[in-house]
Every structure is written in C-alpha cells, then in structure tokens.
C-alpha cells in the first residue's frame, strides 16, 4: 500500500526506513525526533526487539549494497531492495515460524495423534493466508512476534513456566500488540502460584519476576539513560493521537458507527477512556475464570478470548491485528476444527479492503483457494458438528463470497464510497462477536455442541436419568403398597 506514492511510499518503505535509521544512528536517537530522524516520516513505533532486528537486517543490507540503507534516502523501491526485503521475511518464515509450528504440534499434543493430522495442522498454520498476505504483501514481520508467542504457549504447555515467561517477554518486546495476550498469561501464572504452598509460591514468584525484569532491562538498556529517553519510546509505542480505528476495521466501534458517530460525539481522549473501560469489563470474566482454573486448556481459550475482546473493543485497532486472535485459535484446531477454519476464513475476508488496496487480490484468491483445499479435511461433518452448524458455515462463506464479488465488480455509489468496506466490517464484526461467545463458552467448560442437537445427550447421562426415574417410581410403588396395607 502506498508504493510509488510520495511522500510516505507505504508500509514497505517503513520497514526499509527503520533499517536505515537503526544502522546509521545511535540507539538513543532511534525514537527521538532529530535532524536525521524525522518521526513524521515513518518514525520507529515498535519496541526495542523490532529495532534490533531491523538493525541486523540493515547491516546485512549495507554489506550487500550500502545504498539500500543510505541515511536520508526516501522511497527506495528498486527491484534489488524489494528482493532483499522480501527475502528477510521468508528467512524468518523458514528459520523461525516453520520450526515453531512443527515444534508446537509435535510436542503439545497426545502421542496417539496420527502423523497425518500433525502434518495437516502444521500446514494450516504455516499456510494461513492472513499471515502470508500481511507479512509478504502488506509487508510486516508478524511471523517473528507470533512465533515467540507460540513458543511461549508451548513452554507453558510443557510446564516450563520460566522459559515461557522469557519467550513471551521477547514477543511483547517485538510488538506491543502482544499485550493482547499478556493478561491470560498473567492470570494463568498467578492462578497457579496461589494454589501452591506459600514457600513454593514465593520462590516461583521471585523466579518469574526476575526473568521478566532482567529481560526487559537487557532489551531496554540503551533507552533508560534518562526519563526523557524512556518516555520518548513509550510515546512512540502508544500513539493515542492516531484515533479510534483505521479505515473500516471489523470491530464494534466501526460497525456501530453507522448508527452512533463516536468520532463526532466524543473527543479522542474521552473515546480512549470509553474503550479502556469497555475492554476491561469484557475481559474480566475470562481473566477471573482463568485465575480460578489455571489449566492449559483454559489458557489456550483465554488467549483467543482476550485477543478477540481487545480487537472488538480497544482503542486504535488495525485490520491486521485480528491475527493475534486467529493464531491462538489455530492452536486449538484439533478440538474445534470447523469453528477454527471458519474463523480463519472470515478473518481473511475482514481484511479484504486492505488487501485490495495493497494490490493483493490475486494472491488472496490463490492462497485462500489452496487453504480451502487443505482445510476440507477439517470441515467434514463430525460427531461435534451438527447439520445446522455446517449449514450456517456454508451460508456464511457463501454470503462472504457474494460480498467479495460485489466489492470487486460493482463500483460503489458516489455518495457512499465506503459502502462495501463497511458491509465487510459489519459482517465480519458480527462473526467475530459470535466467535468470541463460542470461545468464552468453551473456556467456561460449557459444551456448545450440546446446543446444536438435543439428541446428543450422552448415553451415560440418559441411562443415569432413566435409572433415577425407575428408582423413584419403584420407591413410590413400595410406599403406596405399604400405605394400602395399613388402611
């Protein structure tokens, strides 16, 4: 998006410019507005670990061709630069994301699971169109932070809490959006701590706190020379001035804007407070439940729920942040296959206006088509999927396909240029809200599949009820006979 369009040139230029800044300027100037670092021109706004990654990329780029990262260069879009930058994303896919996917599905599940199923799960995670299109098309490095997040989840699954805390701190220090997952991890660890003996809990708390503190200290060391230096980084990481949301994002505030003009009624600061309060209230049920029930299964669902709540209600949400809810959902693919596949497909649909704007329509069709072929293994009727749910899934995708075709083929009315984008946002938001409800019920151990067909009452439960009724009737007959004998 923005390729060849001055003065900003798009997101690809942002990543290239960050390489230029980090490889040419001292670390203390990376987040400050100076004569060599105009923050209005793609100023660095991700945490220090991203900056270090860009610096490494920049050093490699300078070795290949110093012009790639020449200080003061703008809008560099020559083919060699593009090839190099795209190779850096693919390198992280091959060196980090793919091994992470393999590790998670191989080591987090029962040994009884078939190798074929493991391979399909790995393929679906690595082949998820949303991440491929955003990282390689819109141009981001979400594969790094999400890999660290998945590895942290795997570590907690294997009861390696210290390692898990370290990995999540790295993920959080790569992209601040990982805050979406911070509360569930905290609730899980805190819930486990308070269930231990006091001495064990204190020891574990000190260990976890030390790992977190030392990790942050090591990564933030160049920026803690003064309070002004720290604040300059924080102001870049949390830009409240950017507004409630970007474009037509599929969250509650945007979807409801057709009725309530939030941006006109409230100031940005007031809206930020409203979002904070709303998000906090909606997060509490999942958060408190996980503290009381700190199991791995509950943690997996709480990670999805927290990310969905943040996406639906928080301040300044971007279309691509739905990835932070989809990736943890893929981790429960085996438990809820149809719902997860449905969620994955709708998430790509929700980003369609952004992908079209980036000129990624053909890659979107291609990657979604391939993904659909792979996912058919998981959308077949099963004992956990009623005919009604399967029908709803098919009708939903049919409606999404029709809206997509209309968006591509039919010019929007001059009076309503954002008509189709808003339709996509509202349609997707309704789905995300229902998915949030589903995953909350799953976290609370409420079997949603029982709602689909009352005949799915288990045989054991039916026998228990039948036995209870027979026993009660027999007891009544005995009492009646005794009463008649007395009379």
Automatic annotation (TrEMBL):
InterPro entries: Glyco_trans_ALG6/ALG8
Top-level class of the enzyme under EC nomenclature: transferase
Superkingdom, taxonomy of origin: Eukaryota
Subcellular location(s) per record: Endoplasmic reticulum membrane
Membrane topology: Multi-pass membrane protein
Entry keyword annotation includes Glycosyltransferase: yes
EC number: 2.4.1.-
Keywords: Endoplasmic reticulum, Glycosyltransferase, Membrane, Transferase, Transmembrane, Transmembrane helix
Molecular-function annotations in GO: dolichyl pyrophosphate Man9GlcNAc2 alpha-1,3-glucosyltransferase activity
Protein's recorded name: Alpha-1,3-glucosyltransferase
Source species of the chain: Biomphalaria glabrata
Designated gene of the protein: LOC106069534
